Predict the structure.
Amino acid sequence: MKFGFFDDTNREYVITNPKTPYPWINYLGNHDFFSLISNTGGGYSFYKDAKFRRLTRFRYNNVPVDDGGKYFYINDNGTIWSPGWKPVKTPLDEYTCRHGLGYTKIKGAKNGLEAEVTSIIPLHEWCEVQKVSLKNTTSQSRKFKLFSMVEWALWNAQDDMTNFQRNFSTGEVEIQDSTIYHKTEYKERRNHFAFYHVNVPVQGFDTDRETFVGLYNSFGDPEAVLEGKARNSVAHGWSPIASHFLEIELAPGASKDLVFMLGYVENPQDEKWESKNVINKTRAIQMMAKYDTAAKVDAAVIEMKHYWNNLLAAFQLDHEDEKLNRMVNIWNQYQCMVTFNFSRSASYFESGIGRGMGFRDSNQDLIGFVHQVPERARERILDIAATQFEDGSCYHQYQPLTKRGNAEIGGNFNDDPMWLILSTTQYIKETGDFSILDEMVPFDNDESKAKTHFEHLKLSFDHVVNHLGPHKLPLIGRADWNDCLNLNCFSNNPNESFQTTENQEGGVAESLMIAGLFVTYGKEYIKLCKYLGKKDEAARAEKHVAEMIEAVKQHGWDGEWYLRAYDFYGKKIGSHENEEGKIFIESQGWCSMAGIGMEEGYVEKSMNSVKERLDTKYGIVLNNPAFTRYYIEYGEISTYPPGYKENAGIFCHNNPWIMIGETMIGRGDAAFDYYKKITPAYLEDRSELHKVEPYVYCQMIAGKDAFKPGEGKNSWLSGTAAWNFYTITQYILGIQSDYDGILIDPCIPKDWKSYTVNRIFRGTKYVITIQNPSSVSKGVKEIILDGKKIEGKVIPLIKSDKKVNVQVTMG
Ligand code: GLC
Ligand code: GLC
């Protein structure tokens, strides 16, 4: 069942039924000021940090779900409704929500009155504007009342939801003309306030929640709205809100546009006040003037569309499969940008107060957006590297506001450092900017301790070399990519986190996932060293990589697939000898990508075992059989009920590793088949089961052992976005960035006849058409570049203002 449709021309998903199986959201904002907005107008805003600078309130896990947002109410002679259906929930005659790239338009109609709310955070502004377009489609003149409503958060989102003994006494507002200012704590240590404004005179306002809503009412039936009259309340403590009250009259066929603005302002210390306890509003008033007409908002929407046109232009596919086009060209790239902006902080599953930026997550996210915003990718890489220690280890997370490592979480996740090689080499391949390697980068943010970025890569590589276990395989530390495989943790205290609890000393737990990761990016490191002419270092690294390959062949092969790990005591995990957890996806993915034992047929056998034991209708599960009891020596993985999360859930993040593994042995049909199983546009028809948005990936889909296999959770903020984009574009479509140009190496379903990719690479536009006349999956027979045949598979760099035409024939 569908709840809407894709409008690819406008790059929008159009929701036509407000009762989606879960709130389907969008993100507004590109720098500094951000909002989450659901299809019924729910959500919240924050400035830079969703924990410390929360502007409006949202209640997670609320009943009903997604209550609280930026709401409008219409009281049309006693008929009360909201354009987004919620919170009033009066059935509408018409409803659509268009989630676009950086904006959302929600339209409702009732009894011949239309109200459309366009929400956008204009590029580079610290405000969200809402254009409210009202229209009378009847032949009678209409008089009705419009109320707006946002609820302020008292800045620190965590405190806001817990510290009521204080909070209920601190709230302060100011009202001037059509603007409501929220100034809680501005008197003392804060230099910032927020405001909610409308560009016309108002007939009233409310700023005290209890007065507006009524103590025993809800957002769905505020007393002031029911009565059709604002109370002009001034909040003193309790819960401050901002509500405008407007009486509107529309002649037959007439329409009217209003512009609302939610803004955030910082004042220098000596310019905080206009007079005693009256805030200096100069900057706010300047901001309001920028969007004081509907035309200015329309211009901001057009600017946003141009902005996205430019970002997306770097990779555009023309394929006969429209679902593939819309994922590659629009939604997957958009989601990659959202993960760049938000990491894992704020979604409808991440509360914005929990997690900082992950070392491994941010490095992986980077491969999904480096082609869009290379300069920002460069800065991100250097920020991440600065949280490394001198021995190559690193903080597992860092805080975006301070860019410092998070000491509470600590480190010793032994996969972490290797991901820096992935992000850095992808960045250089995309941009050709080798200068990043010469940047002096501190350790633990201490400028007095700094080495070149290249040295950081070397330390990352050596961190694995220096932490090998008895089988000469990498020691796992707290965990590897799988945060929940906690082999040294032995926790029996429900009040401690598996990720941060003190680990037991003396264990020898080793990871085959890190082994595969090390060989894969060790080879990349060697390639880079050779490219830089560092022959000795390349030779040294080659020796370590060769030893690791040997160790995996000797101690990491179970007969039909790669083992997953050795536990604290040196016992096998992910072996046919185990009762549960006989086979795991991560080591199949990484050891296959690394090509370990390719000649011996290991990769093919591994992929066959995945197909046989892990594949399902809805994607590939993480492990099998699922754990059905708690294994104290395995940790959090065995705490999840079978079929969920890391315990045999379909973790969409790691499915692409298998897709790449399949391309390593030329099985394009299998690779694309796996791709389609988890890619949301292909799941749109079963939205009632999939539950989360059909335009973005989710982290996890319930696996075959779960109560409801196929049900998705945790949409938006997941490494799934980057990995799927990387895999479909570079390994399936086969357009790979490389140091000297674009490497063409597709691995596709045999029945694909042809497709074209427009790729802007280092400033030049390449139009690459791939033809597959002999129905193969892999193999490039010929490449013609602007009419001339070239040798090899790399399209060289060409400096040109004109489009470069590339004709590729497979065979
Ligand atoms: C989450 C974490 C990521 C981890 C994965 C598997 O997605 O953000 O760092 O690798 O879970 O546990
Ligand atoms: C839990 C989740 C895992 C996530 C981790 C973050 O263990 O299962 O996916 O990475 O928390 O701390």
